[in-house]
Amino acid sequence: MDKSYDVCVIGAGVTGSAVARELTKYNLSVCVLEKEEDVCSGTSKANSGIAHAGFDPVPGSRMAELNVRGAELIRSLHKELDFPYRQNGALVLCFAEEDKPSLQALYERGVRNGVKELKILSGEEARALEPALSDQVVAALYAPTSGIVCPFGMTIAFAENAADNGADFYFLSPVKNVKKEKDGYAVRTPDHTFRVRAVVNAAGLYADRIHAMVSSEPLTVTPRRGEYILMDREVGDTVNATIFQLPGKQGKGVLVTPTVHGNLMVGPSADDIGDKEDTETTYAGMAGIREKARLSVPGVPLNRMITSFSGLRAHGTTGDFVLGQPADAPGFFNVAAIESPGLTSAPAIGEWTAREIAGYTGASENRNFNGSRKGIPHVAEMAPAERAALIASRPDYGRIVCRCENVSEGEIRDAIRRTLGARSLDGVKRRVRQGMGRCQAGFCTPGAIAILAEELGIPEEQVTKNRPGSELLVREDEI
Question: 90-144+222-313 is classed in which CATH architecture?
Fold first, then answer.
């Protein structure tokens, strides 16, 4: 079946969702195609959750410009779109006197990029801010404007707001082919052919394959796996700032950071691999993370680990983001090789790309655009009087399903019912954190399955963890 739109966005990760939202600020019809069952199902769901200040990218690069602009946008967007963010600052640690010039160079790079309030601290000054730091720290770069963000919350907020402003999302819709036509492109999925004036290639790890369908210009994306260790909330205050390590004789190092939800996290490793789907964790990766994290914080409480995970970054070959139209494919806009600081840069990439497409198509401003969105209430974070009032009007908000994270039945139901609502256990988890706590869904999974089945009108054995084929239950007569 053919469908017609002005713009087709391929990929519903944080960048694709940010682009889609920005496109709805113009009078354009927009569709978003995602091969998984939900937004935020690829690279965007497994990363450090850092809103980088912008001192690391090479001055003059797209990364530098969009990192700094993205960090600025997040500081306002988190209020408008109601997703978790905290400006906690960052420290880059220097462990050797001979590495101080490199720390100074990083400071000067940040200044050139326009990062405000940067300071070089002595080891004593750094430990005054963060008492858990190693005695081996001789100096540190302090970036007060760095922050931490919920990557799922930000992606979902962008996508929901895009949908509320008219963008159509198609899930379980992998792109099989993109073909140039006289007036644009034909984008084919198993169920539809989308005829559009412009295409946005935000396909993450698969952006090189989508690009090759229409352009002969070289583009290579290599999966770079990063492994992480997540610790319990009870040790989330071990550090307040995000702790980086200055690249030196011991390698690039890993970070130690609180999460915006109160956990403590260390990682990532960095291994280039060939498989675009390989998100396993490894003994070597975990061992390396533990060793390097202790360089920064010797007492990092790794015995409070509740889970490990890994994510894949879309590593490019140019050292910069790949944005805009190839010379041989006008109307096809790459948003590719979006690796760190891609999460921070996403709102700025969306802003830049939508502006380029509006210019290409001649689209006018959409004066009916509504840029605000309200998230799901979390009873655990409410004042007693506010919580009591909500439970009085919605008794299901008084029934706790997930004890570790204090997630109520009402929150889970609203996660399913709202715009682009959850259709899987992972979808619920990313929206309200059911299953993300100490027991890692050991207690609350049956309750969540029952609610999903009821809300979706399906048998419990059809409820999936994520994509079709990931069902957790089978009928006794099928065993």
Answer: 2-Layer Sandwich (3.30)
